[in-house]
Amino acid sequence: MNPGYSIGSKAAAIVAMEKAGLNVPITEVVHAQKVSIDSASDIASRFASRGISKLAVRSSGVDEDGLEESKAGLYRSILNVRTNATEILHAVTECIDAAVKSPFANAEGLTVVIQEMVTPDISGLMFTEDPLLDDSGPLIEWVDGHLESLVSGKVAGRTYYLNGAAEQGASIRLPSEIEQQLLRDRDVLETIVGGPADVEWAVVNGRVVFFQVRPITHHYHGLSSPIVDLSKPTAFDSLPEHVVRSDKIAFRQVCASLNVPIAWGWLVSPRSVSVHDALSDLHQLEADYIAVCLLPKRIDGAVQRIVYRGEEQNNIVDFCEGLLEHSSNPLVLIKRLQPTEFTGISHLEHGTGLVEIADGHFVSKGASDPWEYTVEQGVVQRMMAPQHNSAVRIIDGSAHSYETNLLAPKDDWLADALPVLSRLHDALPGEFLEFGFQPDGELFLIDHFRSASTTGLPDQVVSAGQHEGALVMVHHEGVASALNSHFHDVHQSAEHERDVIFVCERPTLDLVSLLPEDGLGVGFLFRGGSRLCHLAVLLRERKIPAMFVGEVVDELKQGAVMRMDTNDQSLVPVMTSG
């Protein structure tokens, strides 16, 4: 389908859908002004050789389906064009003439999408978010037969929200397997346009086919400038509503409203032509930074985050340009790593719960062994020291691990922090909070995340459950290497082993690739580490049993079949026949 030259937004989106593995009609994209009777004859022959007798010919303007303005319906589409050269050339000419005559269209650089004309059982529109409501989830409108009757206004569609009950009754809902296909492909569609999407689709022989995807202009996350400084109290007032609702930005807004300090951060729109100059003004040469792709939430095949030095601005430029290769309108959150002595995670309810604090950076990544504090009514009742002296710090844009005689944070640092953390936990019930201490003991917030509680779990249990399987000894690439890999990761699917128990040093994030989505068939044993870190959260979410076993790790053998049970923290061999 790739035409080999610059094409309009509609055509580009169709090409992107096909490359992403979505079902699209058989399609060719041609430069409208270059179509002749000979090239039309070649096009007709190619479609006819596939048994296709009718076509849809659609204009694709360079200014159509844009982020600020969709121009939906202003460019010509001609349906039921017979597969012969004369009719194809006539349809293309009509598209050109319509664009030339329209005061709202642009004929310059016009491309034409020529598609197989399908006969759908049902067809419709999907807004991945309702443009008039916040947090609506996907909005579906559908009709029997072809989509043309709906978009032309000849027939009223049946409308409902995929995530909610249909007020008009179940009879207006699509079959559940069709709903599941639409939900499954929603993230891919949003990645293609860089945010909430307006999608045209149909069902042909039980399969969802996509005709078109464009940004929902109401939801376009354009910024008032290439970079927005999130330390300014008025920053959130200028942001689009759905950007403010994203987890990391909503958390910053809560911190601002409660006057709680948080790590310095900026929002960056890489699509802006002036972003390179703006980035130059942002960075301090001797500081370290983290850049994270905020929206879309996931881009398969693209690096999601990097750590870099302020003087290495080419790294952040390359990162932004890499995102633009996968999404037309990404949004990046850049955070400066301020001087940090300790980082911690807290989970408190009415001042009672658990706090972990580790030397250096990123206790949340599982790279360090933390001090664990049990807190009741805002007062520390018990402290457990880490089993191993290990820590990680970011130095010159890279993670470095070290082992030494670590000193616990001063008691008054945590005592002063607990009221602030409790206040935030009251505002964000059920959330885990990630925070840090500067060298002078000043508290600052970093992030938050949701997880199943550790309440009621014994100290050695990360995630409750039982499992039986062969031991697989996991040889870490090294804590610092694992963390550096995480900061330059590329999201790809992976195959997973089953009926095994993985034996690891700590619950570090490089182990994520070992976790099956359904949580079945695996267990984890760790020498030590954090019970509140991100991997521990994932283990509890997927109900994968996991526990700390300390120096027992050194006695375990590859391939031995064992049964683990977190109820009594037992680990026993299983006799196998033969």
Describe this protein's structure.
The chain is of the alpha+beta class and 578 residues long. The protein has five domains: 1-117, Dna Ligase, domain 1 (2-Layer Sandwich); 121-218, ATP-grasp fold, B domain (D-amino Acid Aminotransferase, Chain A, domain 1), CATH 3.30.470.20; 227-337, no CATH class; 342-450, ATP-grasp fold, B domain (D-amino Acid Aminotransferase, Chain A, domain 1, 2-Layer Sandwich), CATH 3.30.470.20; 461-573, 3-Layer(bba) Sandwich (Glucose Oxidase, domain 1), CATH 3.50.30. Strands 23-27-26-25-24-28-29 form a seven-stranded mixed beta sheet. Strands 18-17-16-15-21-22 form a six-stranded antiparallel beta sheet. Strands 7-6-5-8-9 form a five-stranded antiparallel beta sheet. Helix 2 (37-48) packs across helix 3.
Oligomer: single chain
Taking the alpha carbons of the first and last residues, their distance comes to: 57 Å
Tell how many strands the DSSP assignment holds.
29
Supply the CATH class of the largest domain.
Alpha Beta
Largest sheet entry: 7 strands, mixed
Strand order of the largest sheet: 23-27-26-25-24-28-29
Number of helical elements = 12
Question: Which topology of the largest domain does CATH recognise?
Answer: Dna Ligase, domain 1
Domain module count: 5
Q: Which segments are poorly predicted (pLDDT under 50) over 5 or more consecutive residues?
A: 63-73, 165-170, 483-495
- The amount of beta strand, in percent, is 25-35%
Second CATH tier, the architecture of the largest domain:
2-Layer Sandwich
Which structural class is indicated by helix and strand composition?
A: alpha+beta
Radius of gyration: 28 Å
Q: Summarize the amount of helix as a percent range.
A: 10-25%
Overall mean pLDDT stands at 81
General shape:
globular
CATH superfamily of the largest domain, by name, is ATP-grasp fold, A domain
